[in-house]
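A student in our group prepared the protein record below, which I am reviewing. Here is the record exactly as it was handed to me.
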Amino acid sequence: IADRISNVFVPAVVVVALLTLLGNYLWFDQDFQASLLRSIAVLVIACPCAMGLATPAAVMVGIGQAARNGVLFRGGDSVEKLAGVRAMVFDKTGTLTTGMFKVKEIKTFGPPEDFVKSVLLGLEHHSSHPIAQSIVREFAGIQPHPFRSHDEIKGLGVRARDERGSEFQAGSYASLNDTSVEPGHSLYLSENGKVIAWVDLEDEPREGTEDLIASLRSFGIKSVVLSGDARTKTEALAKRIGIEEVHAEKLPQQKMEILKGLEQENPCAYVGDGINDAPALAQARVGIALSQASESAIQSSQVVLFGGALTKLLSAVVIARRTVAIIKQNLFWAFFYNVLAIPLAAAGFLSPMIGALAMAFSDIIVIANSLRLRSSRALHL
């Protein structure tokens, strides 16, 4: 904001200073020295220090206040962008939910259940996906099926070949070549392209998620779920926590396309935690990751929420909006001060020395106003 104003303000002040010099000397019968002093007074008073401090002072204090509340902003741009967000797009697994899955049901089509568990454990123990980590935790104590190689496919699942040459794949319904089975389950296991089992898992929403969505709505921010998980489970979670718009069973590339469409309607932030979310986090106006997210997700994000609490997102939004409000107040004061003081300097009522003192006083007001962000009231809109 300050940069756009300064691009106009600085040339305008130079022109006013030249007009002050020429006007006083040519038309108001002032000698050259008096005219020059008035021109210098205009330049000193209009020195855009307060305008230059308006944004960085507020941003610095705002980022510090955010850090004390468990939110890391990667620069001033991310603060200003988050303040303008009108749609919050959430990944489901590990973001809106805890990511701590429990196996609800296993259905096999031929092989014994113990074999299915062994294969799933062998496939998933190399993956960092929340479902994979939950499988490893749930099936602890079982001997994993040996595989020669592993290949993790973003948004689809894990594929591996065992010592007999059989290819196994564990993933979502979208990953299947065999569509003879019903959709809607959490995980499918196939052998050489044929489904041999599916697994249903349960996952709970993070604590305080429903209140967070309601608070975002009260701030005029629409919430959207954008997930690769099964539609029935995603819609059930969205209904439970109060989100109306749902996009489910989407691959990473499809997520980016949907996010691009949502961005055309409203400035969007994307909140995610997994490797699959990295492209969407990088594409969004603001990418937001939880601190326990994958390394690629954190590197792709502009805001990181520490402590594993999604509710810190509300603090991030409030601090961002308060910071931008303070920036606007600072700029208003700087503009008001210049509108009042420049004519007085041009008319000879303020000397350059008085102008310098007035400029310093204006800077102090801007800094003091920015420091108001440190108060506890800065966390309330």
Summary: The mean pLDDT is 85. Residues 120 and 364 are 64 Å apart (CA to CA). The first strand starts at residue 71 and ends at 73.
